[in-house]
Design a protein that fits this description.
Largest sheet: 2 strands, antiparallel
Strand content: 5-15%
Number of helices: 15
Amino acid sequence: MASATVVELSRWQFVITAIFHMTFPALTVGLSVLLAVVYSVYVRTGNPLYLQIFRFWKKIFAVGFGLGVVAGTVMTFEFGLNWGVYAHAVGPVIGVTIGMEVITAFFLEAGFIGLMLYGDGRVRPRTMALASWMVAFGTLLSTTWILSANSWMQDPVGYEKADGQFHARDWAGILLNPAFAHRFPHMLLAVLISAAWFVGGISAWYLVRNRVHAQPMARRCLSIALGVLGVLMPIQLYVGDGTAVFMGQHQLPKLEAFEGNWESDNNGYNLFVVPDTDKGENRLHVEIPYLGSAIAQDLSGKTNTPGLLLTPPGERPNMWTTFYGFRAMYFTALLMFGTAFAGVVLRMRRRLFDSRRFLKWLVWMTPAGIRDPRPPRPAAGPPARPAHPGRARGARPGGRRAGPERPGGRRTHREGAAHRLPVDRVGRTAHHRHPRRGGDLLRTGAARLSVPARRTGPHEPVRRPVRAGPGARLLRAGPGTGRRVPRPRAGECRGGPAGPGAGRGA
């Protein structure tokens, strides 16, 4: 029999892995729908702006998809290693459900994601649109299977026990269990809202930074994100309330811990509690009188919220994590709803893109790991000095050293005998950022080692494409042509045009 400490550590290990894993599917499911929609609009209208949006966000989707798959694999191993007895008991049901998710959803995504990521300009646009929709359908199908398995664990039905295991008696009842009807729409709306919030925050970041080449894309993406949030946020609050009511009917200990009461004699709503688990009481609590009864749809104030003492001690959830976890989710949702409502009002009044305070607030509402901590670049003034000035001294004899700033806001220096490349604010050229476009491995490694430590870390694969910005070279041919996408010229960075005079032959 495992000790209480081992069980608690196993729970924390599993929940931390689940939180890390869930961060990426919450973004990629919604981003897959966005990619399918914008590319379909591009095929329909031929507007290159939607192609620019597709090319930019598919990089973020690819990174999130890969990290989500790896983290999900780790969580699957923890499910069997940390909870081996439970996994053995529910294996005949959960194993089949997870297996169907792999066979159907994951294989569908794996079959089309390569075409979606690398087929741009290599296959017909309609084929690209079909691949994008198949990937989006696969992510939604994966969400369906996972939520079905998770909902059955919350409210198991349609089974019979034999030899210490749960065996399926009614697969339709298992897959469409009562909890699934509430949890699936709640989760589906959550992932769409998460992706829309992420898209809106990154778009606001480009507007705050005043990235000229990203302005059209950022404006369109921010408008789309706020439109989606304005529609889905009120629906999510309503669906979430229904999920809480269902949970109170089938999982009363959770509701008791959410409310933060030990005795069933309180009709108020607790804002802050300091629970004493050993004594079964709150050392301190701050409440709003009668609000708990009003939430229960009793305006007379006679309805009391149930207390956790109604549950046996061995079945009580941890009130600390349950109470404050629910409060953080609920109040964050209200804050998101208010922000989305304000954004829609500003957009309708045509003041959204000029309201820098709101845009900065929207940036801060985005996950902090994506946000660039550097201050905005000044509009005028001397260019930043390269991080390793020795490169300018190492120019070949007779070569042109770094001169005055050229149109487009970049400086150039000699990078070989044939052409010059623009230098960014940390002294890196396109050779260093994209070694396959030029430069050798030794120079690339030295350039990466010269980058300050704060620009590296586990979030760097996501921050890089966001910092670089959307590509400026678009597919010039209209829909229906299978022409290849032109590669950037030697004098261009992937983050945007190098400006007049900064390319080859300048």
